[in-house]
Structure formats: structure tokens, C-alpha cells
Amino acid sequence: MKSQIHLIRHGITEGNQRRLYYGAADIPLAEEGVQRLKELVKEGIYPQAEEGDFYTSGLRRTEQTLALIYGEREHETIPQLREMEFGDFEMKSYEDLKEVPEYVEWISDKSGNAASPGGESIAGFSTRISEGLRILRGKHQLKELSVRHSGKEAVSVVVCHGGTIASIMEECFPGRREHFFKWIPDPGHGYTLNLEKSDIVTYEIF
């Protein structure tokens, strides 16, 4: 059986506009983000998902993005798919932090094990996203079972975050990109994961 999981990054926020570190901060979409999503909907870039199951990370920017793209939909939240938490660095920019010793130490770490004060390490974030992906795939498999004899394709739509999507793609397609950050889609864009017999085999960009 073939099926699809669509991963969509939320629209533009103040955090994107001001180039801030933000993950746990529950900020809404900026007006620019709302307008850009409406434009992308008109361009028809989003996969059809009339019979799909819908998920968000539970943060406002993902809830708003889902509603703008697909309308008000019943959906579940998967908190494990939230963005990386930056602790004391939340809603601050490089310029705000560049002379803070804890920040300098954090960005200089190459092991992935250093955490921002009150926040997550890269390793801890990756572990959490792996758990979120496991939960998502389990729910998607239930969808596959529910449509097995209907002739329809199982579809799941997940609205989450840039770092979350990059971590998922890096796990599913190791070695396909040179660097984690190259997997991060633009706001409002994302990837379609194509599955065969519940295994993720290829992807498409939208």
C-alpha cells in the first residue's frame, strides 16, 4: 500500500522577521505570514488532503497555518514535534546574545550535547523529534489500516516547525543533504513523504 505524509512549516512570524531564537515561545503568525500563506493557497502548492488526518504541534503559529491552508479541521496535536526550546535565549537575536558567555559557549559546541540555559541540546531535541516521528508514524499506520479496503490512499498532514522538519528529514534520509539547515523549508513550504508498505521511501518538495 502507498500513502503520504505531508510536513508543512508554519508561516512567517515576528521571530522570522527579526531573526530571533524562538521555539517554545507561543507567538502568532505575523500579518506578512498570513498574507503569504493566502498567496500560496491561491498558487495551489498544497497537497490535496480531503480525507486526510491532520496534526499540529499545538503552538498558535501551527494552528493558524493549518486553518489558513485547509480551513477549520478537526485535528490532533503532537507536542513532541515542537521546535527546539532555547531557554534563556528565547526571543533574542544574535546581536542580543553575541557577548553573553553562555551563548558563546553554546554556539561553539560541536558535540551537540550542550544545552542553552533552561533549554535543549541538539542531541536532546533530536531524540524528542524521533519520538514524535514514531508517534506520528503509528497514527499514520492506523490511517492506512482504516482505508485499506476502500481503494483510497492514506494521507496525514502535519503542520510544525522548520527545525522539526529538518530533523525528521535528516533521520529519514541520512546523507542526502550536506547540512541539517539545508533541510529547513521556507515558511509555508515543506515536503511530502511517500510511503510504501509503511516505509518512508522518497520525498517531494512543495
From TrEMBL:
Domain of life: Bacteria
Xref: CDD domains: HP_PGM_like
Annotated InterPro entries: His_Pase_superF_clade-1 (IPR013078), His_PPase_superfam (IPR029033), PGM_Phosphatase (IPR050275)
Pfam family membership, one: His_Phos_1
Gene3D superfamilies reported in the protein's UniProt record: Phosphoglycerate mutase-like
Protein name per its UniProtKB record: Phosphoglycerate mutase family protein
